[in-house]
Amino acid sequence: MEGRRLLENVSSPRTDYLAMAAQPGNAPQLRSDSSVDPSADGENPSSSGMVPIGVSPPDYAAVIRDQNQFGVAGVQESAAVNQADVQVWTEEAGDSILTTEEIEMIMQMRDARGDYLDSNASPCYDESIEMEEYTKQIEKSPEERKDAADGFTDLQTMEYNGQGTTSLNEAVADEETGRAASQEISFDNECTSCGPLNGAVTSFRRFLARQPPKKIFLYGVLVTVILGILLLVSLLPASIVYVDYHQIALKQNKITNIVDSDSVYYGGCYVLGPTTKFIYFDASTHDVVQEFDVFTLDTISVKITFSMHYFLRPREVGKLFRLFHMDYEDVIKKMALSVLRNLASTEITVDNFRFDRSYVETLMHAAVRDKLGGTCCPDCCTSRDCQSNDYCSTCSSAPTCHQGYHIDVRYFNLLSVKIPNAVFEKYLHATILKVQTEREDFIQEHAVTVKETEQQTKNITNRAAEQVEAGQATAYKIAMMANAQSERTRQLGLIQALNQMYTRLNVTQLDRKLSLMMVRELEANVDNLYSGYGYDSHTLYAGPRK
Description:
By secondary structure, the chain is α+β, with helices and mostly antiparallel strands. It has helices at 2-10, 16-21, 57-70, 72-77, 83-93, 100-111, 113-116, 125-138, 142-156, 162-188, 198-210, 213-239, 317-324, 328-347, 350-355, 357-373, 379-383, 390-394, 421-505, 510-524, and strands spanning 29-31, 50-52, 240-243, 247-253, 259-265, 268-271, 276-282, 286-295, 301-312, 407-418, 529-534, 539-544. It is 58% helix and 15% strand. It comes from Dreissena polymorpha (Zebra mussel).
């Protein structure tokens, strides 16, 4: 521990070996005549005649150089040396081989250290590390220190004759060159503006300055490879992005938040980089189930429930994102409700909801499909690959069609219709009035029918009477004509017969002819004649029987 106290007093790595040599029995001495006396251990030779074996030749050469520079007289005359410190050193050194002049010279060197070193460089991190290394060497056991001293003796012991003086001078020159280079490296690589990392950065710079260029290059390659592997291991998992089979996606930059709406990604695994992510859209059906109130054409409020199922057009997802970003579902739902309200108020009545719901459902589906999906013909119409060509016949071409909102409304269902009870009461009252009206109409119609029946009966009776009268008249006419004809025929025959009779009887006088004709006529009507006596004329006469 005495050597450690000496090191702390000197505060310079340059005097560590001298402090070690100051301990008695530390190593054998080498005399100026180059003769080694093993029995001389423990002696205190003078400073001019003995060289301490425990001090390495370069450090001892530095001591000799500094002693020659300052001079013993200069050291004694210097006011910077405190004689009390010299006394303390002498007492602590004990049987040291150093003389009082050498101790004063060492202390003068310690005090003058601040004159040629920067005050900020004195407590630097690198010197502390070196002092710790020297401290470790001092704290070794006497056997280990003796082995180290023997090693120095084996490697650096030389005869201090004429040739030895030359070697000592060369060693001094090498020591000066090495220390100057080391001091230059220390000052050039020192960092004074790194804050709490001044010591670490300075030490790292000095470490690099001591390395040869090839080794620095190898260090750089090794660090680059390690950093590359670390970056690959850390960034590759963050660069892999998945898109599920039921999704489609757009690419977005995490730093600028710019979305590439021109490229659409389908299900799969993609390597995009750590600064890129996906915005996902559902490629399957989007379901809308909503209950809301509408006013019908006859201004009656009706509550309906419908379900709508639509699909995004994969090729047009970028256009949809530019329109609504990720809020498209709410916008599409509100537009569908608006379309249905307008349709119900202009074209649908309550009776349509009550009695013809299939018609209402078809009408609503067509309105929502045309508004949200547009009226443009799909691509399959051009290639004639559509499952049904009926829609292709009703859609419009690209220049004149409505693009819609880049979705396909494939399914629409009218689930329920709720009509208020007040409406049902009104309908019941209206139905009752309608029934009563129909009853009155039926009664009136019955009365009219009865009258019409009576009229028709009378008409038929009249027509029958007319026909009977007409028949009777016709029959009478026919009979009269027949009688007349028969009478004519009979008279003609009678005339002919009378003519023949008059001819045969040779009746030529007219009065006789007439008398004969009268007698015959009376004979023909004898049943209708009677005879009597006329008292007034006292004559007989004949007349018809009563």
